[in-house]
Task: structure prediction
Amino acid sequence: MRPLIIAHRGASGYLPEHTLPAKALAYAMGADYLEQDVVATRDDALVVLHDVQIDRVSDVASKFPERARQDRRYYVRDFDLEELRTLRLSERVNADGTAVYPGRFPVGRGNFTIHTLAEEIELVQGLNAATGRTVGIYPEIKRPAWHRDEGIDITPLLLEELERHGYTDRSDSVFVQCFDKDELARIRGELGSPLRLVQLIGENAWRESKTDYDALRTRAGLRRLADTVDAVGPWLPQLYALDAATGNPTPGRFVADAHDAGLDVHTYTLREDELPDGFRAYSDLVRFSAEELRVDGLFTDFPDVTRRWIDAELPTAQVTRS
Result:
């Protein structure tokens, strides 16, 4: 089985993340799923942005300088949708304004704008109708507890939007992901959603939620997760170690333990321009992930080169369950 190719924020290695051009390019590059990070605006619209803040990917500071909070950051929740639509999106920058990935699309160039979750779904479904393909969507509920503190329950709104666009059954081409374990349990239980759910697994130091990710990564933790979710999304460095003598990557137990628990594994994030320690070429990273780790899905900023390697090396393999 070949792993799913999941376009991480679109074809974000080539175009600014979470813009419709980046999604259209990822579709054309052969991605199986396109990712949408979902955040709520002041007027409760659902927009596709990676963070609850907007200042690292837009010109918000120059257009709305008075809107910064005490931490000097600009938050999506402080703007109406129409205000956000006046912003110009750009390649992601660091706090000092330099590009996070200097070799990518030039910072400040182009005319990219914010769009809603509904608009992106309509793009994907329209392309599916035009091409005959079935490319799926992969929305992430961003920081649901933070949103509730801000006065909005984002999760039911997201599920309602999915239902309006026909995503109502486990067999539909959608995965819903979240870092918050309790929110995923709520989706399955209180909210009664049959859609496939993915528990994202980070590091506790990231403070993505109150979830204890160290506990989830144990065999017992994975077995308990299988009562609620269909797959796990671990950070790639959590899946292997470097051999002390050779420096080569060696698979750990995580993927095997997850599979034993009945869970698929969709790892993040493969980047051609940011190779982790132990890898000298992107092809080595893809091969290791697909053939040695045996993951079921790959989040990647570069769906084209990932797809080319998989098609060349696993030409007769069927895609993992989708």
Observations:
- The chain is about 30% helix and 15% strand.
